[in-house]
Amino acid sequence: MQKFKVTFLPDNKTVSVDKDSTILSAAISAGVYINSTCGGDGICGKCKVVVEGRVTSQPNGIITPEERKNNIYLACLTNVHADLKVRVPDSSRLNFDKLTPEELEERLSGLYSKTEEISPVKAKFENGVFKHSPFTTKLYLELPKPTINDSISDLERLYRALRNFGGFPVIQTGLFNIRQLGELLRDYEWKVTVTLGRRNDMVEIVLIEPADTTGKNFGLCFDIGTTTISGQLVNLNSKKVLGTKAAYNQQSAFGSDVITRIIHAAKSDGLEQLHNAVCDTMNQIIKELVLEHKVDLNTVNCIVCSGNTTMIHLLLNMDPSHIRKEPYVPTANFLPVVRAAEAGININPRGLLSCVPGVSSYVGGDTTAGVLSSGLYQKEKPCILIDIGTNGEIVLGNQEFLVACSASAGPAFEGSGLTCGMRASSGAIQKIHIDKKDFSLRYSVIQDKKPRGICGSGYIDLLSEMLEAGIIDKGGKIKAQNHRRIRKTDLGYEFVVCFKEETASGSDIVINEADIENLKRSKGAIYSAASILVKHLGLEFTAIEKFYIAGGFGTYLDIEKAIRIGLLPDLERSKFVFIGNSSLAGAREILLSTQAMEMADNLAAKITYFELSVEPGYMEEYSQALFFPHTDLTKFPTVKF
Amino acid sequence: MGTQLVLEKWPAAISTVIIGATKDEGGSRSNIVKIGGQTSLPLLFKEGDLPNKPKIAFEIWDIPPQDWQEELISAYGKAINDPFAWAEKCVNEFKAQLLCVKMQGAHPDSGNKTPQEAAKFISALLNKIKVPLIIIGSGDDTKDNLVMPVVSEAAKKERCSIGCAVQDNYKTLVASVLADGHSIIAESPIDINIAKQLNILISDMGLSLERIVINPTIGALGYGLEYAYSIMERARLAALSGDKTLACPFICFVGQEAWKTKEAKVSVEQGIAWEAITATSLIQSGADILVMRHPKAIQKVSNFIETLYQG
Predict the structure, then answer these.
(1) Which residues 6+ apart lie within 8 Å of A90 measured at CB?
(2) Which residues on chain B place their C-beta less than 8 Å from a C-beta of chain A?
(3) Which residues span the domain enclosing A449?
(4) ipTM for the whole predicted complex goes beyond 0.85
(5) What is the CATH number of the domain that holds B140?
């Protein structure tokens, strides 16, 4: 097969590919990231690149004749026929900017709210609901030397000393450790540090090291989101969080939602690619964390991962295809503790990896972790946890029962699938105010840069403000009027949020009627799922004591506006509590306490999965929610436009 | 011991809509038509007030109809070739109390009348006949947005009912109706939520809910009638329970649906029966205005209504 060289600019990375490969696949092999929300199906139009050289391209309705004149092509539908130079414009680039520490702090501890600014996750953690007993513990032992009267074997001697510390149920030791035990004990005068790890109901001797190293015992917890992966490095002795980092899940190159990823996994090498992508992202985060905090990677002994069922399948390189097919059965919800190395995660080579157990194919360990960290399962009165993500998970319950459902809300609130949508990262508009009289606009941008697009919380603000100013009607249609911000296009009306002079890309940032429709469906899916779940249990929203709102909304979410657009029910504002990334917080608790680990197992077994798609009232409920704020205005008594 | 009827009382009422304005009210109609006002489900006379009988409107066009079958056309004879004669025949011969005129001639595919031509037609029609009018656009949104405001203005003060406003195109029509003192027909695709949403959107523009007539969209017998029936019934139940946004009378376009069926094309008798049965079924689900085509079907349904309301 003929090979050609493709050079990607401005990265200046060159890769040699077979003739007829797509530019997108060349980019993936070159390690250059190009947006591709549809996973290379030629639908989303996010992978536009400028090409120098001979290519063939399949016809599509996305590239305009003018763009074609400027040599703009869709990377996924364009095949290499010569050596090429490909420039990836900013708009087609995944933004791998790291979040600033302040942003992360805010993102992880809870979101901004007008009514309340608390972080129960953190508070609970500090109070210590669970007994401190980390996933891996280090014990320093000084063993008595064997004598003719005390001649039990080296391993028995070690076990005997360990039992003095208290009741370990079953102890297991790998052959690797036993082989070197005799020499190690004698070389270091019977003074060793033993690292013990929990392997479900057993205790395993993970590692035997010379001398006293008990001071160096670290662990990691991760939230593996479909879009964002966040990780924390924790000192397991002091419970102190040393650092937190987040990066975009590199799997995004293969599609933006779990379904496209599952489809990709079925392609040849697809599963491998997705598995590698998540490992690469996590290993990069781990590397940066240990380097920055001067921690020896060998002293990182364990890792707890929380993620939706699909993400966990991909992390462990398990085939996720049955998640998508009726009757939607995953390979496993409860996974045994494995060695991190088996999953491809670089910590201590014998270090352990645990996944927070999931409930079903569409309610994963991230939800279990959320229930754990929000304390939902301890409440007397019913409370709700709403995780606003691509798959909006909703859990309703208290100390007696827990029921969860999953609403396919779509990625709109994560800024995906919208004309000018973007994730909550540098350059995203996250806060908007529109003057009712002249439609002049004030906005704030993450990191105060020139705006590149609008993120989920920005869209919530924008919708609410547009309704308030009468720019759109309650159905989400833009009202035609003579104003420079309102324009008619082939696709209907659009509203200009920022003119090109103000933006980073030099083109206008707009919202059109299709975007509004998209957002309307997302908010409708979440609201109606919560509503039907409450109804299913014979309750009313008013009977719910607290609403815990979790999700990756960035650093800001205005609860008032979320209610005004009908995303959240119209109730006393003090009922809403923002808990940010509840999945990561839960994973951290599990890392630090075997009690929490056992509780997570109990919770996952206890949570009842409620399938919305077979609920007869769901479609009706959903159609009613496709209006701002809702078709039944009596459900939103405080909302007046 | 006699059987005791269990009576249900509802807390709310359907609003009353008046079509037509007499001289005293600034118009030139000889009579007015009142619909709505119920405080019970259809025909449950003991449970509440049913002050206004269902009304039948004769459907006429501003041009000779193009796709009506021969049997239907022959019912009107030569008059059908002249819209004014057709209208007069309905009133004089068939004793129509209400006409529904469809401005089909403004459609780009059937004559493409200018807004001025359409307005001139309406003015002339209002001069020639004295019963109240329902005026319906051609169904081409872009064209209707040009034509209907002018038509509405030409019928100013005559308190017509003008339609149809749909979810994606209601603003122009609402503005005209508001300015010219008419009521509006709000059309939704057999969908109670959209009906409700559209009513909210219309009332948000300042046209009160009391000036809205709901066109729930119906299917003829055998073509989804039961679906329309249940949507109307659900809307009525909600309205009588206190949902103001659904408390509007219904207009049902029976003729156009019934005569579209292949059954109606078999014979004229069967067509008439099809139209009549569709209409009578809809009366039982709460229809307030039935827009119909065949005079014989209209006669049958008229008799049916009289019999029902004899008490």
Answers:
(1) A452, A504, A505
(2) 167-168, 171, 191, 193, 196-198, 200-201, 204, 243, 245
(3) 421-511
(4) no
(5) 3.20.20.20
